[in-house]
Amino acid sequence: MASSLSFFHVFNIIIAIIMSHFGQLDARTSLNVLNFGARPNGVIDSTKAFSDAWDTACSLEDSVMIYVPKGRYLVSREVRFEGESCRSRDLTLRIDGTLIGPQDYRLLGKEENWFSFIGVHNVTVIGGSFDAKGSTLWSCKANGQNCPEGATTLRFMDSYNVRIKGVLSLNSQLFHIAINRCRNIKIEDIRIIAPDESPNTDGIHIQLSTNIEVRNVSIKTGDDCISIGPGTKNLMVDGVTCGPGHGISIGSLGKDLEEQGVENVTVKKAVFVRTDNGLRIKSWPRRSKGFVERVRFLGARMVNVSYPILIDQNYCPGNSFCPSQESGIKINDVIYSGIIGTSATKIAIKMDCSERFPCTGIRMQAINLTYYGGEAKTSCNNVSDYKDKLVESIYTVMANSNRLIDLMAIEPIGPILIASKNTTTIKASPKLRTDFVTYKLSILSLPIANYSLNSKASLSVSSLFTLIYPRHPPSQLLVIINTS
């Protein structure tokens, strides 16, 4: 049986090469992994079949598709797809089946990766399920046993022009998808699933890479849904649903003194459901030459999220053997806009920046976060005052408030107005400028109305509610105060 398989394998390669050479195939050559010895029964190891199919595809100059039919394929060791000597002008791995890891976590756990793509270009991975069966390794780690680190399910290194679409990753031993030293990568329409107690199972990890797009993904895992490491530039994250998990994190940064920065990152239309954090930037409290710059968090919805907005420059998980220095990571030009929903913590916005290098250029607009239907708090340490006159700060005016609402905690974010039901006026904070600069109020409800007042004036709270909603005024209005 083994000799006949070997003969058929060799025959398949020879025919594919001959037909490709004489142009007798269609525009795309198709290679079925079953013809290389893969078995869809989940019992016979198909590791070698996948490697052989890749090697054959790379020997062809055509556009090539490696096809994995429906079924369950046991892959017990790392499969390395290397592109250095690949001749194919573009290669597609089309998976209709499920790839499963071994029951013995040690077989795969000793590998760094399960499926690794190294130095590839013009490659597409479409469809399929990757079930690494990581739960036995997590149990080993939870019991404090001598366990291997575990394997990342899909890793792309030193690659460019790669598309990953329609993939399902289940129960990865470690990271689900990792992008390292890559450019022009598109990740779209994927699902990632692992329980919230699964350790270090980041959904998508990106570092030292540029021009990366992540669109329309659903991530449920035990660590960061998306982690953005040093050297990430020009990243677009659009339409992510996260939870359970630790949110979307830039960092952790500052592990090394010589570290590349993170810049030009946009995260928009994200939904967080009962996550440990929402939008987070985290760095270790030690010296570093790294930085974070030009970050945009746009249009996120929080559902019972702990710390929906968080900058933590004293990051030290477990609080053991923590560095005692100030973080050297410089954070500048970060915009939070359209962040709404509910916080599971009283402090919804926490900014704990470096004392040595305070955060600068932090701007907020259209923020509406509540804590169990009431007022949420903001905590800011080492956030520099704004110098840009267009900087906006946010305040929610409570119609049913019976006391003066103290917003001095977020004074560093910008100009603040205080609302009091007792006096039914909005009055300028004592810390505002006392000259006649004008502050514009924008009511973020339909219809939108604008008001202006100088720093010595006041405005009727009731008029805001009754003018915008004469019949059925809401319980609260979101007010943006903008210097002009």
TrEMBL record:
> What PROSITE patterns does the entry give?
POLYGALACTURONASE
Could you name the active-site residues?
H246
Return the Pfam families for the record.
Answer: Glyco_hydro_28
Gene Ontology terms describing biological process: carbohydrate metabolic process; cell wall organization
Q: Which UniProt keywords apply?
A: Cell wall, Cell wall biogenesis/degradation, Glycosidase, Hydrolase, Secreted, Signal
The family note in this entry says: Belongs to the glycosyl hydrolase 28 family.
MF annotations from Gene Ontology: polygalacturonase activity
The record's annotation in InterPro entries points to: Glyco_hydro_28 (IPR000743), PbH1 (IPR006626), Pectin_lyas_fold (IPR012334), Pectin_lyase_fold/virulence (IPR011050)
Its subcellular locations are:
Secreted, Cell wall
Signal peptide (from-to) = 1-27
Q: What is this protein called?
A: Polygalacturonase
Q: Could you confirm whether the keyword Repressor appears in this record? A: no
Could you confirm whether the keyword Signal appears in this record? yes
- Biological source species: Thlaspi arvense
Q: What is the lineage of its organism?
A: Eukaryota, Viridiplantae, Streptophyta, Embryophyta, Tracheophyta
